[in-house]
Write a structure and sequence with these properties.
The chain has 171 residues and is α+β, with helices and mostly antiparallel strands. The protein has one domain. 44% of the residues lie in helices and 14% in strands. The chain is built from 6 helices and 4 strands. It has helices spanning 9-14, 28-44, 62-78, 125-134, 141-152, 154-166, and strands at residues 18-23, 50-55, 85-90, 119-124. A 4-stranded mixed β-sheet has the order 1-2-4-3. The longest helix has 17 residues, at 28-44. The protein is globular. Pfam families: DUF1415. InterPro entries: DUF1415. This is DUF1415 domain-containing protein.
Length: 171
């Protein structure tokens, strides 16, 4: 099922260095506190490379999700985590600003940031920089992924996302 859209994720998954945490996103204060707690956890646990925060319920609407993302990013900056951690975002209804989607017609490229559940992904900036330095032409990764998904088509992307959503969580 893996598509290696992120050329760096497989190694950390195999090493079991990804932390998963499910959060109730309905209460903004609780959600924001949890984001900072995860930054602190990453500071204190170098064996944890990255954290995936699964936001449910409270972030089902994409634009509400973007508002929560903006608040979390601003809080991370004010707490001194700018340049230390990066907050990537994934959502079932993700749309890029330059999406080619039109009413009734999805753009498969939007699936590069789609996931079965709303997610915040906390990444260590130093690890990201080191990984990008080892990858030839990292600036081409998004274009490569979008081209791959457009070639596969929306139906295929939707099928993969639905299959992932129906998998039982691993222990």
């Amino acid at each position: 099922m893996a598509q290696d859209l992120c050329p760096f994720a497989a190694a950390e998954f195999e090493r079991e260095r990804i932390r998963y945490r499910q959060l109730d996103a309905a209460d903004d204060a609780t959600l924001l506190m949890a984001v900072i707690e995860e930054c602190e956890h990453l500071e204190q646990h170098q064996n944890t490379e990255t954290t995936l925060l699964v936001l449910t319920p409270g972030a089902e609407d994409f634009f509400t999700f973007l508002d929560k993302l903006d608040m979390a990013e601003r809080l991370m900056i004010s707490e001194g985590y700018e340049g230390v951690y990066q907050l990537a975002s994934f959502h079932p209804d993700y749309l890029f600003g330059d999406s080619q989607a039109t009413p009734g017609h999805e753009d498969a490229a939007d699936y590069t940031n789609r996931s079965p559940f709303p997610l915040f992904h906390l990444l260590r900036e130093t690890s990201l920089e080191a990984a990008l330095a080892r990858f030839p032409h990292p600036e081409r990764i998004p274009e490569r992924n979008q081209a791959h998904l457009r070639q596969q088509g929306v139906a295929w992307c939707r099928q993969i996302q639905d299959a992932i959503a129906s998998e039982p969580p691993s222990s």
